[in-house]
Design a protein that fits this description.
Elements (H helix, E strand, L loop, with lengths): L2 H7 L4 H5 L13 H21 L3 H4 E4 L2 E4 L1 H16 L7 E2 L3 E3 L10 H12 L6 E2 L4 E2 L4 H11 L3 E5 L2 H13 L3 E5 L5 E2 L3 E2 H8 L2 E5 L7 H7 L4 E7 L15 H11 L3 E6 L22 H6 L4 E5 L10 E5 L1 H9 L1 H5 L4 H16 L4 H4 L1 H6 L3 H16 L6 E13 L7 E11 L4 H9 L5 E2 L1 E3 L2 E4 L9 H9 L3
Helix pairs in contact: 3-5, 6-15, 7-15, 8-9, 8-13
Bound molecules: pyridoxal-5'-phosphate.
Length: 480
Amino acid sequence: MTEQSRLLRQIPAVDDLLNSQGVSALFELAERSVVSDCIGTVLQRVREFILAGQDIGNWFIEADGEQLIREDALYSAISCKVKEVVSPSLRRVVNATGVIIHTNLGRSALPKAALDAVVKAASGYCNLEYDLVEGKRSKRHEHIASSIAAICGAEDAFVVNNNAAAVLVSLNTLAKGGEVIVSRGELVEIGGSFRMPDVMEASGAVLREVGSTNKTKLSDYESAITDRTTLLLKVHTSNYRIVGFTQDVSVKELVELGAKYNIPVMVDLGSGLLLDENCLPMPDGLVMDEHIARDFIRDGADIVAFSADKLLGSSQAGIVVGKSDMVRAIAKNPLSRAIRIDKLSLAALDATLRLYLAWPTKSYQMIPTLAMLTKSLNEISIEAEEIRSRLASVVSKEFGLGVEPGYSKVGGGTLPLLDLPTVLVAVSPKTISADALSKMLRSAEVPVICRIADDMVLLDPRTILDDDLDALVEAFRNLT
Ligand SMILES: *Cc1c(COP(=O)(O)O)cnc(C)c1O
């Protein structure tokens, strides 16, 4: 008998493993047939390793000159496989990157009130599309329309599942079959391939670019107006700024031009910041160079569209505010049904907007995204010191620990030029690379996502939530 077939003969039968003590705990996680399939998968993998002559040492142990299969290795592989099948793929992670609106990490953490609202709405029935007074059908967007319209000083509001969809349905409603005039300096691409020219095409409107990348004048818009023009569009250059020799046209000027030719004006604002500097006190002399929807509504824009999970700090949604006839036309567009908001996002958004209404000057402290944005350097340095000392009590001498100055970013394609001063906890591993350490942190029970620079792992307290601190410390305690 060859060595290979001797090893293959050591592989136990699926049924023997299924009836063994080593897997019995797994029946709490999944049915017998599921565990059985997982055992089959693991045994097949072992068979393939033997045939390929690979990693034999992982599965076999030598005793009395014979190779015996390692039952502990089998049980642990089976347990991993079952957990992989039954555990949700979407997991809580610790965002230690210092990027507040991290799109890859789910953008905004919800305020407590919004979380409670989601649980209530989702754990039973709710009046999603039901008028409790009249006892008949109503519309889901009505739950938030008057709050967001009031916050923005607009006549009416509508909501869909994200801002890309809000822009698409607005253009399709207001401009389909006609020409939309946009400055060449504003043909943005937002991450995840949202490109203004492509969205325009999908909406059925024709893009009419005017001006140059760095300069667009009112006369550029005016000379492009024809009887085919259906809309003047202003797009917020969310994730970049054109600096230097520049000129652009304000919304106010566009509104005056629009009035002269009877053409509506729309603004794609992106960020969804709702608070001005009086209600959102920036620390340490920082200045927010970001418009709020209310300003553009006051300037006379007919429609303003923005995200709900960027600087508004709530769930994924796209909001349209503006003149009621246009908002109503957008709501009636059949496309709106295809991109409607779901009840969980709506519940979160509704509750978040109530915070803005009830606590105009305090809401920023209750909305995690805004609380992170306005954290002072002093608060952050206290947190950094706490994290450093808690980590010092769990990691070995193989990790150097320090604190150092650095910068956080707002992220989510907003405020690209704003560097927020922060204090970083710097971990320098002495026996492994920073890359290897960050990989180990990612494989923790609650994965920790961090930045790397100069072969150090950097943790930014600005985006580490209080609830995440224990998980962060555990991730370091369990480094092997
Ligand atoms: C972010 C952004 C969008 C896309 O919004 P989503 O809510 O991510 O769909 C569209 N336009 C601008 C200007 C943006 O900044």
